[in-house]
Every structure is written in C-alpha cells, then in structure tokens.
What does this fold into?
Amino acid sequence: MSGLFDGDEKPTAGTAPRPGRSRALLISAAVLVVGFLLLTGLSGFWTERMWFDSVGYSSVFSRMLWTRVALFVVFALLMAVVVGFNMVLAFRFRPIFRPASAEQTSLDRYREAITPIRTWLVLGISLLMGAFAGTSAAGEWRNFMLWRHSVPFGKSDPYFDRDISFYVFSLPWWHFVVDFAMAMAVVALLAAAVVHYLYGGIRLQATHDRISGAAAVQLSVLLGAFMLFKAADYWLDRFDVLTGSGNLIDGMSYTDDNAVLPAKNILLGIAVVCALLFFLNIWRRSWMLPSVGVALFVLSAILLGLIWPGIVQQFQVSPSEADKEAPYIEKTIQATRDAFSLGDISIETYDQATTNPSADELSAATSAVPLIDPKLVRDNFEQNQQQQGYYTVAPVLDVDRYKVGDTDRALVLGVRELDQTGLAESNKNWSNLHTVYTHGYGVIAAYGNQRNEADEVVPAETTPWAESGLPPTGALTDQQDGGYQGAIYFGEQSPKYSIVGKVDGGSDVEFDLPESTDGDKGTTTTYDGKAGVPIGGLWNQLLYAVKFSDPNIVLSSRVNANSKIIYDRDPTERVKKVAPWLQIDRDPYPAVVDGKVVWILDGFTTTDRYPLSDKQSFDDMTNDSLADTSQFQALPTDEINYMRNAVKATVDAYDGTVTLYAWDETDPMLQAWMGAFPDTVEPRSAISPDLMAHLRYPEDLFKVQRYQYARYHVTDASDWYEGNDRWQVPQDPYKVGDLQPPYRMFIDNPGQDTVGSTFSMTSVYTPYKRENLVGFMDVNSDATQ
It folds into this structure.
C-alpha cells in the first residue's frame, strides 16, 4: 500500500527541502528585493517630480534631470565605445601563432573559459566603465551649465589678461573634460594591455619580441594620446596658479611666477615631445626613445615641479619675502576687495580726546539702542505669548522695522509655529500628528527702545507688545486692511509632513485656533493653499508611504480624494530646492507683507575660482554664537573667494509659494544661472513696495565682509605683510569659540541731525589677538540704501 503513495509522501522532519522549492524561494526573495529597490527609487524620483510641479518649478527639475541624463549618456557612451573598441581591436589583431611556453600554456585555460562569453564580457566591461564615467560626468552639471551659459565679468586678470569668466565658468569644465580624456586613455590602455597579454600580443616571459607589432602600435597610440592630454592638463594648470591656495596669499606669488609657472610650461613641452615619440613608435617599433622621454618627463616633474619651487622659496623669497611678494600682495588685496565688494566702505577716524561724549550725548545715543536681545528674549516670548504648549518660536528671534504711526520702529519678531512635542503623549497618534495639528498661527512682536524723528524717547506704550494674542492683534494687524492670513503652514519648525483636505463627509479636522480665555471656542479649518501634492489615488499614496516609511498614508480613512500632502516646509529648504545654485543666508526672517506672512531669505552666488582673491571657509566666516550651524549647505565647496547678494527670495508662510527676485542684476554668476534656468527669477522691478520696505542687508554677507575687511582694510602691501594694523572679529564673551554676532539697531551716523535715525547692522573689531576696541563697523540695514 505504501508504494501507492510514495510519490505523495511529504518529507519527514530533518529531510532537506527539495531543490526546486529552494530555487523558487530564492527567486521569489530576489524578485521581492529587486521590486522593493525599484519601488524605493521610483518613489524618490516621482515624488520629487510631483513636488517641483506643485510649487511651479517643474522646469528646474526637468532641466537638472535632462542635463544630468545627457551628461551621463554622452560620457558613458564615449568611455564605453573607446574601451570596447580597444578591447575588440586588441583581440582582432592578436597573434595567429603563439610560441609554446609555460606562460602561454597557463593562459590557455583562461582563453578557453573566456571564449564562450567573450562578447558579453567585452560588453559588460565597457558598460561598467561607461557607468562609472557617466556617473562622474552627471555630477558635473553645475560646471557644465555655468560654462554653457557663461557671460563676461568685464574684468581681466593682470597676468594672462583673460576675462574673469574664464576662471569662474570655463576653467572648471575644461579641467573635467581633460581629466576625463586622460582617464579614458588610461582605462583603454589597461583594457587593451590585458587582452593583448591574454592572447599572446604581450609575452612578459619571452626573451625577445615581447610585444607584437599590432600591440606596439595600439599601445603607442594610447600612450601618445595620454601624453597629449597631459600636456593639455599642464596648459590648464597654468591658469590654476591664479586660484590656488598659498601660505601667505592665495593666487600668484613670487615663487609661482618665477618657478611654478615656468616649470609647467617646460613640462607641457616635454609632454608634447613624449607624445610625438610615442606616435613615432608606430613606425619605429622601438621603445628606447619613448622610454627615455618618459624618464625625462618624470625626472623633470620631480625637479621642476617639486624641488625647484622649494629652492626658489627657500633661498630667494624667504630672506626678503616682504620685498619679493609686495607686488603680488597688492594684486591680492585689490582682487579680494573686488570679489567681496569691500571697495566702497568708507572709514571715519575718531579721536577720543576730541570726540569724548558728554553725559547728555551718551544718554541720547544709548536710548536708540534696542533693549531687547533677540536670543535672550525668546523665553519671555514663549512664556507670555505661547498660548498653548504646542506652539513655539524660533531659538533666535528676528529684528525688523515697521512704520508705527509716522515713526520707523524696531521690532523683535517671532512666528508662533507648531511644536508637536508639546502635545500630551496620549494625543500623539498618527491622525493628530499628521491631519489635525498641521500649522501654527500668527506673529508675535515686541517694541525695541529708540527715539523718534522728533528726538523724543519712545516707547510710551503701556505694553511692550506690538503684536500679540490669538487671533493676533496690534500694530502689524492694523497696517493690513482686514488683517493678514495668520495660519503658518511653512516655517522653520514645521512638521515633517501633513495631510490636508476635507475628510469624508466634508468636515474640517485641522485645528486652527485654541479656545480663548474669553470663552471663544476653538476653531477648525481646511487648508486651501497652492502647495501640496494630491494623494487621492492609491498610486500616489503608495509612493508617499514608501517615501516616508509610513503605511498609514495608504491605510488611513483620513486620506481620500480631497487630500493633499505638504512637506519640505522649511523656507530655507524650499528655496534651496528650487534654486540649487544659491547659497542661502542662515537667517530667514518673517514679515507681514501685502496681507500675509512671508519668510524673506537672501540668496548668494559664490565661487572659489575668482583669480587672486583670498579664499576662506564660509562656515568659519559666518559662524557666531547665534548662527544655526545645523543647516545643510547645498553648494559643493565651503571655501569661497567671491560673494554677491544676487537674489531676494520669499516663501509664503500659508501656501508655500516660493518667489525669487533678482537683486544684484549686474552679477555675472546670477546672469549665467538665469540663462541656465530661465523664467525662474523675477526681475527686481517686480518687488512690491510693501515687500521692499522689509528687505534688509543680509547677515551672512555682512559677516563675510567684516571677516575679510579685518585684514583687507589695509591697502598698503608692506603694512599688510607686517600685520601691524590687522584686526579681528572678537569672540562672544558668553560662548567661547564662536564669533560675536552682529546686531541690528537704530544708530546715529555722522552727518545726521537726529539720534537713532538709521536702521543699521553693527559689529566691532579688536586688534589681532588683543581685546581692546579698535573699530566699529556698521552698514545700513535697509537693503535699498
């Protein structure tokens, strides 16, 4: 009987599973893994596309995408074709007869193993090398777009007489092209050499005729091409001398001018000669001359590229460095002042003996200084105006000026943003966190201390608050006809993502205003702004569930045909995404403009390729005790030697609209990027008067300029070298290791009749490595002045 069921017997305990079942399990697991990876990649790509489309900057996404794709395809194909062609060529001209030897016998088994898959192997290697090359090229999209849309600076360097645009826009791209060409020649050379060795074209153990004629020709061509590309690399390296970093100054120095630059010219010539010797070897078939040429090249590179500059520096420059470097220092000073716009700074000298103020003058001056510290007052803002535990304000508040009555008043402001950590633990469920508590509400503002145009002390108010309460009331509300839209969906403290829209049945579920002390009930609302990606369909829900690793986006009944998802809500992040070519100021600040709350941000164009200008770390120059060092900087380099306030940007706190306005319309870098991303930057003339009144001088630009001016206020080369008048930005006495931050206040500038009439940003200087005051720096904080 048992025999009738043998074919149906199940394996007993301890019996190994059938091979077919194991294979099916492995295939299923592999399919699931590949499917998950594909879905994850598709989720990241497609949701990013939908986000750009939702904010009206789909052209930015498409231009970056297609530029990267085009660079990848072109350079990947170029590398793949060159490598594959050389491998096929090496195989095509392999020796028909290979003398028997132990070496060839050992290679026979490899040839036999490769023969059945030879075509696939060549194709696979070529595509793999192409993928590496294409990925590298896709990462050069910034340099490519700047080169493609370059515009002249209208200034030339003093050594090569080339427009600055060559160094900023063209040189980085041509460096990549030449480096790619050298890499392509090396990879093709190695691939061809391996094929020749495998099929007997190169016989390392032979006593004579180690390289066949065909192999000698092919390798000579590739080596000659490499040396030509190396010569081109030396030609470009000559210009890098003007943007390189040095011990004393950046850019050209005496040693660079008299040793490094001549050495590069000589090495360029030797590289060309070596290339010609390799090309000549196509007919001579003797490696003697090319070998001598390469040996001479290597020896020259060591002697001229390393040893000779060291000798010149040690025995010619060091004994009289001040005299030797003086003309180069002068050019560095001038270039640095041009690159950071330091040439228009006016200097006023004060003599304590003649300008010693009286008690009345001191009283008048100090009355114009705000008594509210934007950092220290933050706790007071929360204690008095937080209203609920789930609201918060920024760690460092902002200072702006508003017309109150007929007087410009300095106000310290904060936006009442949502802080979900303030919710009770029992209320922190998915629905509350992502569909109910979605936004903050209103602006909080307090008066500073100043005098008005009649030189009368204000405030005389009975309350320090210029704007307070929920719903907010005060001077800012009074300025706007009908008040302003107070819901804050986009801010520095916003949740990671929220799902908005009416739930099934058409009811509102988003919490809007809490119950007031007067007995007014709390209210709910539904977001109806422009921002947000519709996720009513299952496909979009699935994509976002993968993106945020949250299955509730698919499972929750709160997500329906009316729903949209809003995310990437930090104003800085939004501007960085739509304008990836900008360096964003670390201090976005809110303003009530045209009936709504907007975040105002400053965008900078920067580079580290401005010739002869001093190169410094952006983080070092802007890092002070109030700076937010956690923000990710989008640009590829932290060191810069050129900076312009190219763009003013706004982000609507309610609907997330991002608007870019050209500010420094003469900036060549801005013009180049506007050519790369057309129709994304509005002209300066499009700025409304109400918005213009709140634009201010950027903090990060001021920090960079004060840092550089500490040394480059000295214009005499000898004085600069001696450092006897070098200044520094003092450290914050309350936070060792960080610089003292600048402050915004109303001050009295020379030539003005009234006290505290200029809204300024101020800082001080001390002598280098000393603590006494040596200078006071201020800039008109009104960006239009």
